Amino acid sequence: MPAVIVCRQANLMDVEPLYIMIEDYAKRGIMLPRSRAVLERQIKDFVVAEVDGEVVGCGSLCKLGDELVEIRSLGIAEGHKGKGLGSRLVEQLEKEARKQGIPKLMALTYEVSFFVKNGFDVVSKEIFPEKVWTDCVNCAKQLCCDEIAVLKILD
User: Fold this and answer.
1) Backbone angles phi, psi at 62, to 5 degrees
2) Considering Cα of 104, then 130, then 25, then 73, what sign does the dihedral take?
3) In degrees, to the nearest 5, what angle opens at C-alpha 46 toward C-alphas 10 and 29?
4) The overall pTM is greater than 0.85
5) Contact call for residues 63 and 69 (beta carbons, < 8 A)
6) What local confidence, expressed as pLDDT, does residue 144 receive?
């Protein structure tokens, strides 16, 4: 029987699996850590991917202004990568950005080809002062950031 895949809005029951997944990425220096308390406060900003009822992927939106929203904490659990779940999560987040009337969707990433495949263009980080002054100013990698900025203009 084929797996049942669902992408949906996250809820408080998802905090623990989100925490575990994000913590795994954070330990590898790929994603910023998020505490359980922060996840609880920001749960409405998250979407999850479930396979047969198990949360195996996540992503969130962070509003950086009236014109810009950032995709954050986008990840897929080991064993579930390469099945299109990341693209489905990005599609869900894009729908939410459109619903909020925000015309620009950005991300900082190490997975440039994934985002390009999903309609994003590589751009200079410096075009996002909203991001730089909100988050980057407090980041340990601020002066040696190796993430690549990507942007998608929504129609």
Assistant:
1) -125, 115
2) negative
3) 125
4) yes
5) yes
6) 56
